[in-house]
Design brief:
By secondary structure, the protein is of the alpha/beta class. The chain is built from nine helices and eight strands. It is globular.
Length: about 280
C-alpha cells in the first residue's frame, strides 16, 4: 500500500545484502529474474505498487510461473490502516499515486483512493505475508523485515503477535484469538507496570486455570492445522493474540506459544504495543 513503509523496507533489504529495485514494471519481471538467475551472484528484492497500473493483474500469474521454474520467492505485503495512511499522506503532503484533481473534501477523496487501491491489490495481499505498519516505528519495521528474511525460505514460518484491541485489530493476522476474558494482571497493583515477559506476571498467569486452558486450546488448534498449511505451500502463518492493552495476557501467551512451537517450526514473535514502552 502506498504510504505503508516501502522505502524503509527496501533499506532493510539493502542492509541485508539485497540488490533492490523499486517499481519494476511487471512486464520486465521474468526477463530480469532470468538475467539474475544466470548470474547467481546476488539476492534481489523487487518492490511493486499500484503505479504498475493496467499490468498489475498480470503479476500473480508471473509469480506462479517463476515458482514453477524453481525460483525461490518470498512475498511481503506492507499494509497500514486507513487512518494511518491518510495521516501519513497529510503530514508529508505527497499525492497518492491514484489521486485525481480534487474538488471539495480532500481527505474524503484520499480515503476513497486508498480503498480503491486496496481493491486493486487484494489478490496480491492474499498471497503474501502481511506486515501491518500502522503502529510500527521505522526501526521496528527494519528489524521485522530483517527477521523475516533471515528465516529459512524452504520452511513455513510461524509468526506470533500480541496486540491491544483498544488500538484496533492488527491487519496482518491469519488467525486472531481474543483473550480479554482471562484474568488481567493490570488490576494487580504490583503487576500493572510490568509486561507478560516479566517473571512476576508469568508466575501469576501460569497459575490461572483459564489461562492454561486457553493456551492448550490454541496450541491444539495449531498442531492440528499447521501441517495442512505447510502442505498447502504457505510460507508464513501469523497468529495474533489480543487483550485489552497488549501488555500482559497477550504478551505472555505469545511468548509461551513461541517457545512451544519453536522446536518444530521457524518461529518469530512480535509485540505491537511494547514498542512504545
Amino acid at each position: 500500500m502506498s504510504g505503508s513503509g516501502k522505502s524503509i523496507a527496501l533499506g532493510a533489504l539493502e542492509d541485508a545484502g539485497y540488490y533492490c529495485i523499486d517499481n519494476l514494471p511487471p512486464e520486465l519481471l521474468e526477463p530480469f529474474v532470468a538475467l539474475e538467475n544466470e548470474r547467481r551472484t546476488r539476492k534481489v528484492a523487487i518492490a511493486m505498487d499500484v503505479r504498475s497500473g493496467e499490468s498489475l493483474p498480470q503479476l500473480p500469474l508471473l509469480l506462479h510461473r517463476l515458482r514453477d521454474r524453481g525460483i525461490a520467492l518470498r512475498l511481503i505485503f506492507l499494509d497500514a490502516n486507513d487512518e494511518t495512511l491518510v495521516r501519513r499522506f497529510s503530514e508529508t503532503r505527497r499525492r497518492h499515486p491514484l489521486s485525481q484533481p480534487v474538488v471539495g473534501d480532500a481527505q474524503r477523496a484520499l480515503l476513497q483512493t486508498i480503498r480503491q487501491e486496496r481493491e486493486l491489490l487484494a489478490d496480491l495481499r492474499d498471497r503474501s505475508l502481511v506486515i501491518d505498519t500502522s503502529f510500527l516505528r521505522p526501526s521496528k519495521l527494519l528489524a521485522t523485515v530483517k527477521d523475516l528474511i533471515a528465516a529459512p525460505a524452504s520452511h513455513l514460518t510461524l509468526v506470533f503477535e500480541s496486540f491491544a484491541f483498544k488500538r484496533g485489530i492488527t491487519l496482518d493476522a491469519d488467525y486472531v484469538f481474543d483473550v480479554r476474558m482471562l484474568p488481567n494482571p493490570h488490576y494487580e497493583a504490583d503487576l500493572r507496570p510490568l509486561t507478560g515477559r516479566d517473571a512476576p506476571v508469568i508466575d501469576y498467569l501460569s497459575r490461572q486455570p483459564e489461562v492454561q486452558l486457553m493456551l492448550d486450546q490454541i496450541a491444539d488448534f495449531l498442531r492440528t492445522w499447521l501441517p495442512a498449511l505447510a502442505r498447502d505451500h504457505r510460507s508464513y502463518v501469523t497468529v495474533a493474540i489480543g487483550c485489552t492493552g497488549g501488555q500482559h495476557r497477550s504478551v505472555y501467551l505469545v511468548e509461551q506459544l513461541a517457545a512451544m512451537f519453536g522446536a518444530d517450526w521457524v518461529t518469530l514473535r512480535r509485540h505491537r504495543e511494547l514498542e512504545d514502552r
